[in-house]
Design a protein that fits this description.
alpha/beta; 9 strands; binds S-adenosylmethionine; Rossmann fold
Length: about 260
């Protein structure tokens, strides 16, 4: 189980489509504020890495206008929304496929690097793809504290498995905590770090991005012998109970700029 990569199995496609839409709805407002904070302007060349539903790419394309470009890539494009002609949507594996050097004014990856076994190498590739003066923005989670919060059983046990990566998604559950150090190692200028948490409730995008991930993960946990189907179903019913509320992961966004030559 642990050596499988990020991917959607048969039967999970609709859950994942809805989940990515919920993730976008919950996180796009903060992402837009952070990306605007880089000075994002008409004419910029942007790369959205692991674009998912593609909503950030669609927003970037309006911001950079007809003289700017957006390269919107993902290993799996089936969930990507339609976009304007200044966006090139391309299937691209950030870990395995070649990337252009010194080509972008802005590179952004949200909730992607934590899933990749080669995350540090990919981080460096994203950095090398920046033109002098360009900005890299990486958003990732800190799931260790999320995993340990006080929750009712049996959900608490299921939650701990899913949030620390005991599913098919091979990840560093706490990569968000390490991101600022990567920027520092590469000599980034103007590093900024923002973190936030929010209340997660069933039926709201801020909760559903996770509760749908649980729905996807439970058959995998059962298959691996970690929980029974009954425990999985009880846990799901617990988070879907009206009035249930829990703390989100800490979402950490780090931005930094490559020195202009
Ligand atoms: C948790 S989703 C985040 C989607 C989007 N960035 C967002 O925040 O709404 C992770 C995304 O990374 C993509 N992904 C996983 N491995 C990848 C890889 N090796 N190269 C490019 N994209 C990858 C997945 O297909 C998925 O769309």
């Amino acid at each position: 189980m642990a050596d499988e990569r990020y991917g959607v199995r048969e039967g999970e496609v609709e859950i994942e489509r809805n989940r990515l839409e919920m993730l976008a709805e919950a996180r796009d407002p903060r992402t837009r504020r952070i990306l605007d904070g880089t000075g994002l302007s008409p004419g910029w060349r942007c790369w959205e890495v692991g674009a998912g539903a593609g909503t950030v790419s669609a927003w970037l394309s309006r911001r950079v206008g007809p003289h700017g470009t957006v390269w919107s890539t993902d290993a799996d494009l089936q969930f990507h929304c339609p976009v304007l002609p200044n966006v090139v949507v391309e299937q691209h594996d950030a870990a395995r496929d070649p990337t252009p050097a010194a080509a972008f004014d802005l590179v952004h990856a949200r909730a992607v690097l934590q899933h990749l076994p080669e995350r540090d190498e990919v981080f460096e590739k994203l950095w090398n793809a920046l033109a002098p003066g360009g900005w890299l923005v990486v958003e990732d989670g800190a799931f260790a504290s999320f995993a340990e919060q006080s929750l009712p059983e049996p959900y608490a046990t299921v939650h701990r498995y899913v949030s620390t990566g005991a599913t098919t998604e091979w990840r560093d559950a706490d990569y968000g905590v390490r991101v600022a150090g990567r920027f520092r190692d590469l000599g980034a200028a103007d590093i900024d770090i923002i973190g936030d948490v929010w209340a997660m409730r069933s039926g709201e995008p801020g909760g559903e991005w996770w509760f749908m991930a649980l729905e996807r993960a439970i058959p995998q946990l059962v298959e691996a012998g970690l929980v029974t189907l009954e425990v999985g179903e009880t846990a799901l019913a617990q988070v879907r109970e009206p009035g249930f509320v829990m703390m989100s992961t800490v979402s950490i966004a780090v931005s930094g700029r490559k020195n202009a030559k």
